[in-house]
Amino acid sequence: MTNKVLLIRPKNIYSYNNYPALNLISLGTQLEKAGFKARIVNCAFESDPLKTIENELKGALFAGISIVTSEVPDAYDLVKFIKAHSDVPVVAGGWHCTLFPEQMADSEYIDYVVAGEGEEHILDIAGLLKDGQKGGKKIHERKIVDLESLPLPDYGIDGSIERFISSYLTDKLSEYVRKPMRWLPYESSRGCPSQCTFCINTVTNNRQYRKKSADKVVEEIVYLVKKFKLTHLKIVDDNFFVDINRVRNICRGIVENKLNITWDGECRCDYFNERMLNDETLDLCKKSGLVQLTIGVESGSSHTLELMKKGITPEQAEHAVEQCNRYKIIARSAFIIEIPGEELHDIKKTISFINRLRKYPYFTCGVGTFRPYPKCELTVRLLEEGYLQEPKSFYEWTNREIIDMYTSAEYIRPWQVNGKYSESAAYYLNMESAVRLGNHQIDRSIDRLKNDFFRYFAKIRNRVKFYGLSFDKKLYKKFLVNFYKRRGDLEKSGSYPLSCVGED
To answer: Scanning 18, 116, 126, 244, which has its CA 20 to 30 A from the CA of 90?
Structure first.
């Protein structure tokens, strides 16, 4: 019986492909440790993905495909193709499968569904198939994985890994790190104990915080930095700072090993206090290379923050931004507008709050209209009130309009108090922050001048909160597409380096 396992990453509808598939790399590492041979296919990088998959199916024990909602259309076509051209079993996992395991298991094109973390399930399924016990369909329910026992993901399993390492990281931190930049994502913990009403962690029972020890983290970081000659590490934990003593020990380890790297991670605003992110800790983080924190500010309205069950205040958020600014750490702040229950004055409070925070040079922000993550408290409310309908099958999720409704960051939705205003506000606030294109990315002086013009015009709109007659938005979208085409990103990868245009 063969030991070969094919792992597939589908294309997503937004042509976004900036990060390696760390989940597939972790699964592949587990499989290889157990004596199997893993092969990862990233469909966005293939000129003919179906042909590549057809070739790789030969002699495969099974095909594993990881799916998020924006990848469903391509994933559906892929599994249908696999079943039409082989008898290789299909194993589906990822966030979409965790949210809708029964729907996925009902599909004629899927044999096994993994809900939640897959490192142990993938070995169970591989062993079952290796022994020739195909059996009937089965949903593998969520298990809590012991992160301390997991091996360090073998990033080299992904044949495209160097492409990611040397690729442009679109965060604002790229203005401040040394060049050429070499980076990788790294996971040191899973789960977030917060109970935000809009978050996928709440609905997938991922609030239980699990972590690797500080010693293990430092050991793995040292290895990765030396093996891949990294200059930056992007810590992708849902909430890296839950155990602040562990964070301090990790920072000390980075300093003691003289790694000379930069790093960034995610943090809550209310952690900036004397017990956790105090001056001593921020100084230590900065010495270890911290250059950016992504903080969930979410809103400038206390009423909206209560609807979100965010557990913070605007005052705490501004204090967090101010502290980051003191230590020259980029405060990459996330905001959501059009939360169900918000009023227009709440949205304008958020715009005013963002305008005020612009006085801090190290503040930047990304703004989106509320995306109704399936199963979360706010989404359930919208379903009950008839504003939203949830697809009943894997196939129904292939509809682009439905996916946009659930996942697009800038979108007009039926429950919004002023959808057109909010969609444009989000776009212009992001334009001012250079979310899609910063001058540090631009070589030609004429393009820098054009970009400055668009950002200046966006700044004026944001200060007066006027978003009508948006002719400049259409010109900006055209400018972005032409810029990336001329630079060659589209031709080289088949996708833009970020969702540069935005959705109408």
So the answer is: 18
Amino acid, res. 408: S
Compute the half-sphere exposure of residue 387: CA atoms within 13 Å on the CB side of its CA.
17
Taking CA atoms, 378 is separated from 373, 374, 480, in Å, by 8, 9, 34
Question: Is residue 307 helix, strand or coil?
Answer: helix
ω into 73 cis (within 30 of 0): no
Q: Are strands 210-211 and 138-140 parallel, antiparallel or unpaired?
A: unpaired
Cα–Cα distance for residue pair 73/25, rounded to 1 Å: 23
User: What pTM was estimated for this model as a whole?
Assistant: 0.90
- 143-165 tens-digit pLDDT: 677 888 889 999 999 999 999 99
Angle, CA of 489, 491 and 492, to the nearest 5° = 65
Does domain 4-147 fall under CATH 3.40.50.1970? My reply is no
| Cα distance between residue 213 and residue 234, in whole Å | 18
Which DSSP category does 148 fall into? G
Q: What type of residue is 453? A: F
- Cβ pair 55, 119 in contact under 8 A: no
Across the range 389-403, mean pLDDT stands at 94
- CATH second-level architecture of 168-371+408-493? Alpha-Beta Horseshoe (3.80)
Cβ proximity of 404 and 503 under 8 Å = yes
Which pLDDT tens digit goes with each residue over 266-283? 999 999 999 999 999 999
